[in-house]
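User: Run a structure prediction on this.
Assistant: Running it now.
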Amino acid sequence: MKFAVEHLRVRGAAGDIAVHVQGPDAGTPVLMTHSILSSSMMWEAQAQLLADRGMRVIRADTRGHGMSQASVAPYTMQDLVDDSLAVLDGLHITRAHYVGLSLGGMSGFGLGCLHPDRLLSLCLCDARADMTPAMAVPWDERIALAQAAGCQALASATAERWFGRAFLDAHPAIEQQFLQAIGITSVAGFEGCARAIQGLDYLGQVGSIRVPTTLIVGANDGPLPQAMQGLKDLIPSAVLEIIADAGHLPNIDQPAAFNAALLRHFAAFF
């Protein structure tokens, strides 16, 4: 059954947060958050997949991304955690499953460490829980470029870093979809979230996560497979799924394998 998407707005500390809801009204809630320079559109296929299985799926646009408002930068990762709580509170949801990728996965570690009472499970994808100085430095250059020329100036390089040129050449519609999403991201939203990434520091707390947790990562996503293996070893009973031939957004470039891993995570809850 194809569920219609209901577009709502809830109030957050930085302004209105756009949320996109589908699935049966009585379904168990799943909150999905996305990468920096993207939007909730990146989860469209997975949202339908979970809605078809009876879950109530809430996709949230991160502040300054998609259709969500932004406040002046910088932000902290805790601000983004609080935005997720604002979505749950605004929709009167006590506890939900949480699926986050990249930036959404980073803030998901904060949710798991600090607000386990609001969670049924975690599925965190292509994300780390800390930011090394060497990995923080490139964000300064990206912020400066966005401030000078807008986020559209980041679009081509970001898409190629995520997917590789060969994949984009073979999938022009996907390329255009992501170039557009990157281009409409507000500079304040990008800068604020980039500063939050630079300050990421949950690694010392992830051992306290007790909700069922699955970690998913693309095998070709640079140092992240190794980082997520380390996180799997720190989080009690966590499961690690490595998606072959996938980059930073495995739900897009290897959807069948990613969806199978996602459904394995939820198998105990259907």
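The longest helix spans residues 77-90.
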